[in-house]
Amino acid sequence: MSNIWVVTSNAEVADSFAGSVAADPTSITVVAVGSTEAAEAAARRGVGRVISIVLADGSPVEAVASEVADLVLRATPELVFGGVSASDRVLLGAIAGRAGVSIISAVTGFPSEGSFTREILGGIVATTERATGMVVVSMIPVRATESVTGAAATAIETQDLAAAMAHVVDLRPTETSAVNLTNASRIVSVGRGLKSADDLSMINDLAAALHAEVSCSRPLAEGLGWLPKDRYVGISGNQVTPDLYVAIGISGQLQHLVGCRRSATIVAINNDEKAPIFSSCDYGVVGDLYSVVPALTKALTA
Predict the structure, then answer these.
(1) Structure-model confidence comparison of residues 69 and 151, the more confident one
(2) pLDDT of 27 strictly over 90
(3) In 3D, which of 50, 25, 36, 54 has the Cα closest to residue 157?
(4) What domains can be seen in the chain, in order of their start residue?
């Protein structure tokens, strides 16, 4: 394909797709919506064209979805990519709606031109399918190569759509943990083996020693409310790909494993030697987390 567009508001998505989805990066146009970081990441990859959409202060990405759709469709692209975030899905939805096509979700790769692999049931099943005509894809980001292969940085074109967009008249932010687990290289995750919310300090200490983010299984976020909902990993939560995933007091049911199975290395700490997590981890410690976690933290900070 020679006319590929990436539409995103996320720098990691722009870098990932620009560095991975095409053998020839000059065939890619990146539209970075409301994110100078995304535009700069794509430009460093030497793609064919980078368009940075400037938003008015406080305006959401969704406010320019219609204008972004018009911009993309004027180029009659063969393939349009975006990420899996809520904002990216809105942008892709506007493009697909205007084009009269469906969004293909949870795509993980393209084994050959015209075919794609995608996950269903939260990643429990993978399928290979084919599509004809223009394709709009919500794709799970892959890890881009660390270095840029000698390409000259692309000049960034700036378009200010502030006059065309809907304007925000009131903001009522909800409390959030301001964490992006999708991009974390190390994660310490805790489950129902933890007896009290007060004991999270022990988990936080280990995460600090590992320079890791803290996540949890679904019950701790949705049932007990010990951690925000954007912290839980699982089929209906975050699906993460860290270099290191430490599962503490997590039994390892399928609902959770779907969210962390792409981790490069999984370490499990559980006092039940028959816990399912031990059949899916790279390293396992059978023991009381209240003894193992402080000892591990001490060893890491000694």
Answers:
(1) 69
(2) no
(3) 50
(4) 4-160 (3.40.50.620), 181-301 (3.40.50.1220)
